Amino acid sequence: MFTQVPLPYAYDALEPYIDALTVETHYAKHHAAYTTNFNKAVEMAGLQDKDVIEILANLDSVSDPAVRTALRNNGGGFYNHNLYFAQLSPNPANQPSGKLAEKINSTFGSFDNLKAELIRLALGQFGSGWAWLSANKNGDLMISSSPNQDNPISEKTGYIPILALDVWEHAYYLKYKNLRADYVKSLFNLIDWNTVSENYNRIIR
Length: 205
Ligand code: MN3
Prior knowledge:
Layout: H1 20-45, H2 52-57, H3 65-87, H4 98-108, H5 111-124, E1 129-135, E2 141-147, E3 160-166, H6 173-176, H7 180-187, H8 193-204
Antiparallel strand pairs: 1-2, 1-3
Bound molecules: manganese (III) ion.
């Protein structure tokens, strides 16, 4: 049984950057629904003994197309939002450090360049989707974007996301309306780079 990551802050703790009603609706309705529907699809596919990364990386092995689509959309929604909510904090470390900071500098030139590239990808994603910073087991970094609830795992890139920018309208529309750029920029006031570094270290270990 897959469960949502416990929210490590109150619904209103991300104000003024993300309003309380958006956090509550996003977590307690959208993320909850993805999780419920993922669990149903996992049961139909008989994959209860697998972890979510294994399931998303091996969707081709599910023969029923409807179940495969349900796993892809709801498994992605479950996994992506766990990453998204856990990385946010009202008191974030606003710079990466250690191994991740070194790798960001050698790959992207600087932390500011990385942020600019992530914002560019988030704004360039047409319609609903995500922008990502991902790592592989060698410690290499990749930035990308995905439609819907796809991610670098279900896209079989060999990379695992360590930072998730949700650009579905449900993530920002109540407060920001059509101004996706303002939302994405404000997200960087909430991203805890200690958590992102922990995600990185877990993958390369
Ligand atoms: Mn979302």
